[in-house]
User: What shape does this take?
Amino acid sequence: MTNKNNQHAVRLALLLGLFSTLGPFTIDMYLPAFPQIVEKFGTTASLVQLSLTACLLGLGVGQVVMGSLSDVYGRRKPLLISMALYVVASIACAIAPSIWLLIFARLVQGFVASAGIVISRAIARDMFSGHELTKFFSLLLLVGNLGPLVAPVAGSGVLSLTSWVGVFVALALLGMFLLAMTKWSLKETLPIERRSPSNFAQQLRNYGSLLRDRSFTGYMLAQGVMIAGVFAYVSGTPFIYQNIYGVSPTVFALLFGSNGITLIIGSQLVGRMAHRVSEQFFLLFGLYMAGAASIAVLLVGIFHGPLYALVIPLVFFVASIGITSTAAFPLAMESQGHMAGSAAALMGVIPFLLGAVVSPLVGIAGEHTAVPLGVIILTTSAAAMLSYFLLVKKGVKAKA
Assistant: This one.
């Protein structure tokens, strides 16, 4: 890229990255407010947690719907409507008179927030391909990965000034800002002649075609299963660090945040080296790194190793997610320009569905053992590796 193109790419990545952060902000900002919500509605912690499950379900299913709509109607129109509905859903959360209406509003909020995630990635594929797509996607992840780091802190900051209602008011304001950005700063990137027919049966055929593509499915599963391992990490480490190793909330935040930084470093490494080292090499390297790190975590859990012995392999495990995600996305999307929205939707929904399955399993043996975390991330690493070798590598050999 020239300097002018570089500057344009950075501005575009910043804008699209903001849409990508909508998911993490929607999920994480209200987590510190759980006790307040329980007290407000006189309900149970499990019902409040159900509002998080509803949001995750909306984010997962919404990506499939929004991806298809963006292939049919272009990128801007579905994004404009979704951001407007996001504002409405956020306000509905703030004024919900009962826990059940809050749960429903969270489902809708997650559903429309999914447009920001999937359409931003489809736009990236509309505009770039090959190594340029890898470089741009790494920039997109640089912004998007800040969301999980900033959102809980932002939520705590809002709660220090106001009640849990203020969190959803802040999310409504974020939605209004993104609505304005869509209206005034985002151009349509999918010309009419490249759009899919407005036909539900055709959309189903598009998804069927994608799933029959061995290489696409292999890359999709390799990325999705690896990211599902991160959900297990996020779910398990608060209990492991604080209950087993007795670290303070401040130390936990530092450990958690430092691992988030390694995720960013991993993705940027792939982007910076895209012209020198192939995405295939980085994907395989990341998969092997994840496997080795997860074995180390499992051994530490079995033999009750010291804190540093757990922290170090988890750093490498999280870094491997940044590497594999950044490498797998352009490889999967390269030949899917004609239905980039649907392809990006499938790549987005798999991590949420698998993450919803594996996250509760981390606590299956109680809050005082790290063994389940080691078993789960080793399983996800092995499954990702099998997906790559059985679908991608084997498919390439079959064609040869």
The CA atoms of residues 206 and 232 lie 31 Å apart. The chain has a mean pLDDT of 86. The radius of gyration is 21 Å.
